[in-house]
């Protein structure tokens, strides 16, 4: 039985390692070590797994929601509660490899970095966007390879990595940050993670100065994560191309109110605001009682995980449950139920589209608003001034003596309040 379990475990580990190494690519899903392909047809054989080399960024996963990033270097070590791991042992292994410590205390998974994994392990210089919000932002802004995106502000670079993956290899991301320290840190990270070719970081206060003049009419989408996004809407309207999308990330609803007012003033339409609140579900195997006249046993209460565990007294813990199943007192089933605790509020996402101006609309709008100074307008103005002067030159009317009102009460004291 032990040999059978060991063989099953090794086979499962090999399959899992192969799947993970093939599915998880580099930060942009591009293998820099693989030879370039010369055909558009799908390969009949899976591409070789990408291996770890010196200087690579590796996401080390110790367990559920327990991961960190490690840069491979010669004679480097990684210490955790599972033991001490040497970087030299990882070099040459495929991404997705399960690495054991030399002392055999435990193991960790070595995964290739992706924007989703990077969001979990990056250094927090500011509050960041997480996967649910990032996915909706990229989808609503309609990003694709070749798109040009402007972002303000950069922060910790969580969203910037996802934007770069969407627009690569022919697009670009222009991100702006008013804090110079964060600008320098972001530049180093983007270069180290291989995004320097696609991301340009600039030190600039967008709320005060707006987007640069050289970006006028060049951006396909603009993302704002600022305390006062409503201050930047006129600048965004100049930066976006017709039919471009603006996304504003605001924690407070008062920011949303002011931003929508400015959007409507500056020619935006299709305005909508959403809030993402995730809810997780648990899926478990349970033994449900079918005969209500039979008392519940301890095994039935706790479910399948307790069915086959040996109690301390040496008896068979599963015998009671097997008897219940044989007599129809309980049945095995899968149950799902939502967790009571919901995801907390992150922010409101407001999306809007810059409406293209139809041909001749500016002239028609100017006529409707009477902003065009024409000969007819000058003539009407001259007539108005002439009539006004004529009425001003008339002699004043004779003053008529005012008659006393007949509705006045002569003796108010004679009446009660």
Can you give a write-up of this model?
The protein is of the alpha/beta class and 417 residues long. 31% of the residues lie in helices and 23% in strands. The chain contains 13 helices and 15 strands. The chain has helices spanning 2-23, 87-90, 115-121, 131-140, 158-167, 180-192, 206-209, 233-239, 253-265, 298-302, 319-327, 361-368, 375-393; strands at residues 57-63, 66-71, 77-80, 83-86, 97-100, 107-111, 148-152, 172-177, 199-203, 219-224, 240-250, 268-274, 281-289, 330-338, 348-354. The strands form 4 sheets. The protein has a 7-stranded mixed beta sheet with strand order 9-8-7-10-11-15-12, sandwiched between helices. A hairpin with a 2-residue loop joins strand 3 (77-80) and strand 4. Helix 3 runs antiparallel to helix 5. Mean pLDDT is 81; it is low at 9-25 and 302-308.
